[in-house]
Amino acid sequence: MLNKTTIRFKIIIAFLALILITAGIGVTGYLGMHLSNTIIQDISLVRLPGVKALMEISEGQAMCFAAERGLINRRMMDSATRSAQYQMSAENM
Questions:
Q1: Do 50 and 72 touch, CB atoms closer than 8 A?
Q2: Using CA atoms, how far apart are residues 56 and 84, in angstroms rounded to an integer?
Q3: What is the mean pLDDT of residues 29-54?
Q4: How many other β-carbons are positioned within 10 Å of the β-carbon of residue 67?
Q5: Could you give the CA distance from residue 91 to residue 83 in angstroms, rounded to a whole number?
Q6: What is d(CA 58, CA 21) in angstroms, rounded to the nearest whole number?
Q7: How many separate domains does the chain show?
Q8: pLDDT (tens digit, 9 = 90+) per residue, 9-32?
Q9: Could you tell me the CA-to-CA distances from 92 to 54, 63, 72, 74 in Å, in that order?
Q10: Which stretch of DSSP H or E encloses residue 85?
Q11: Which of 13, 49, 19, 23 is nearest to 2 (CA)?
């Protein structure tokens, strides 16, 4: 089929094929970037605030545990130390 065509026609067909391949790669890249942007926005707007809130909860829980351990400890019976432990416990609840 291509044996009887001119070189001009063959070169035009080759360039059109290259243009189609380049356009396909461009569309694939654009769609990939769009998907990546969507995922990054989901992470930054939805998931990271949740992680921050969980971190704050974890810190408060650790402080409550520390205050309760201080109240349970029999060596910390002096009133100033115990009132500081009660205050720390109240602040973190």
A1: no
A2: 22
A3: 92
A4: 20
A5: 12
A6: 53
A7: 1
A8: 999 999 999 999 999 999 999 999
A9: 15, 6, 17, 22
A10: helix 79-91
A11: 13
